[in-house]
Design a protein that fits this description.
- By secondary structure, the protein is of the alpha+beta class.
- The protein folds into two domains: 169 residues, Sandwich (Immunoglobulin-like), CATH 2.60.40; 79 residues, Golgi alpha-mannosidase II (Immunoglobulin-like).
- 22% of the residues lie in helices and 32% in strands.
- It is built from five helices and 19 strands.
- The longest helix is centred in the last third of the chain and has 36 residues.
Length: 335
């Protein structure tokens, strides 16, 4: 019996919608996957890895229904027909957020995750910075679209510094060159983020390799999403400033209290640029006293004495200058 064709168009509309959404999500993370392939080439590290690889324990040893992409993304696929939820394991030693929404995992360890028909549960690990790119229908056209950085902060610890940090990197090349690493025709950008409990956040991007400066490096980073921020009120105004090529600019920051997420937009940063960005909540309820609308009763008297005092001082100074000038002129005549 002939097997059913597996092209998306051979399925019903619900399946087509689910396939389309899943493929576009995969296109979103292509820059991250491409960077993992670079690391596999130069370091021999794995792209897809078991949970035991990153979190060795008796709980993760036998898990074969989940996997990690690099160290940052945890995939919990639905493998049972008709299932709308999936039994999963989220290692308790890390903080986990939904990659797309920033909602933190309600629990860790053995959990049951909702998995509607068009959803593949995908979590980002706290301490990671992942570069995403808005998708299109082909990889060639996707590479022309803007980037979005996801900064996933780890949970707070009781350390002395009272700060959290995250790191990540992005590899770029032309996409069709031969041996770009061996010939150094590539660019590599490293990202770091540090966040203090008072809300202060600094994100740095450093170009550690700039052998490739093609159009892929000119694409804009149009948003940065920061998960797990602290130090903000529900109505906090957010100050965002960044420096690129010695020019200081401002951007827009919006805090979403429901899931402690900070969204930074209105950026004019090319993905191939180094930059330093600072964010902090502005102080609220600052009252500036209004200017008086009427003059005090003794204002005229005060003004009169001021005029007299200033006039007298001016007369004395001018008189002294005149005497000095006269003496100077006399000395000149004598000489």
């Amino acid at each position: 019996m002939a097997a059913k064709d597996q092209a998306p168009v051979d399925f019903d509309n619900d399946a087509i919608d689910a396939i389309r959404k899943t493929l576009l999500e995969r296109y979103h993370i292509l820059p991250y996957l491409y960077t993992l392939l670079y690391r596999a080439h130069v370091d021999g590290s794995t792209v897809a890895r078991s949970l035991y690889f990153e979190f060795p324990s008796k709980e993760t040893l036998a898990i074969d229904s989940q996997y990690l992409l690099g160290s940052a993304l945890l995939v919990s696929p639905v493998l049972e027909p008709g299932a709308r939820q999936v039994a999963a394991y989220l290692p308790p030693s890390a903080t986990w957020y939904d990659l797309w929404t920033g909602v933190p995992a309600a629990a860790t360890g053995a959990v049951v995750l909702p998995a509607p028909l068009n959803t593949v549960p995908l979590h980002v690990r706290g301490g990671s910075i992942v570069a995403l790119q808005y998708p299109n229908t082909t990889t060639t056209s996707s590479r022309k679209n803007p980037f979005r950085l996801v900064v996933a902060l780890p949970a707070w610890s009781s350390g002395i510094t009272n700060t959290t940090a995250a790191t990540g990197e992005l590899y770029l090349d032309s996409g069709n060159s031969v041996n770009p690493v061996q010939t150094s025709v590539f660019s590599l950008h490293q990202y770091t983020a540090k966040h203090a409990s008072n809300g202060y956040l600094r994100i740095d991007a450093e170009a550690v390799a700039e052998g490739y400066t093609g159009p892929e490096t000119k694409v804009l980073v149009d948003a940065i999403h920061v998960y797990g921020v602290h130090g903000y009120d529900a109505d906090s105004d957010v100050h965002v400033a960044y420096v690129k090529v010695l020019n200081k600019r401002t951007a827009t920051g919006t805090y979403f209290a429901a899931n402690n997420t900070l969204v930074i937009t209105d950026l004019l940063i090319e993905v191939g640029m180094s930059f330093a960005l600072e964010v902090f909540p502005l102080a609220k309820h600052i009252t500036i006293a209004p200017a008086p609308t009427s003059r005090p009763a003794d204002a005229d008297a005060i003004s009169t004495w001021l005029y007299v005092g200033v006039g007298s001082a001016t007369f004395i100074v001018l008189g002294g200058v005149y005497q000095i000038f006269s003496r100077r002129r006399g000395y000149t005549q004598v000489l």
